[in-house]
Specification:
The chain contains five helices and no strands. The protein has about 140 residues and is an all-alpha fold. The protein is globular, with a radius of gyration of 19 Å.
Length: about 140
């Protein structure tokens, strides 16, 4: 088994970073918007929930693409969606909800996030399979 070249690893890292930055910025802005709309903790929970579900739909769309789309998966799946949907933020919101004495609300967010996430990954995959991106057309060879 050969190791990928340093150039390829650097390219892959750059793709992940290029996706992670806008994903993290969108997540941050969603939480800022959630705070502005609700003025409190409920807005942040709602924003995290929306960001996680959006990320699940996008991951499903990416899963439906041909396996040769490695760059798209690195940029969009690992970079963008990885930053947009963060497990640690989700767990933090659940613990905070429990700390506020709202175990039923925490359970509702947990179940809605898991169920909605699975549903949206499947929906995204179905949409992506139906509208699969086409790879570049093979170049015709002209014989001289």
């Amino acid at each position: 088994m050969s190791r990928p070249s340093l150039r390829r690893e650097a390219r892959d890292l750059a793709l992940v970073a290029a996706g992670a930055i806008p994903g993290a910025l969108l997540r941050w802005q969603a939480e800022t918007l959630g705070l502005a709309i609700d003025g409190g903790f409920k807005g942040v929970v709602a924003a995290d929930f929306a960001a996680n579900l959006l990320g699940c739909l996008l991951i499903g769309l990416l899963m439906a693409q041909p396996p040769a789309r490695t760059r798209l998966v690195l940029w969009g799946g690992i970079g963008f969606c990885g930053s947009l949907t963060t497990f640690s933020s989700w767990m933090l919101q659940l613990v905070r909800t429990l700390d506020q004495g709202q175990p039923l609300a925490a359970l509702a967010v947990l179940l809605a996030s898991l169920g909605g996430g699975l549903l949206l990954v499947n929906l995204g995959q179905a949409i992506g399979t139906r509208h699969r991106l086409r790879g570049p057309k093979p170049r015709s060879r002209v014989l001289k």
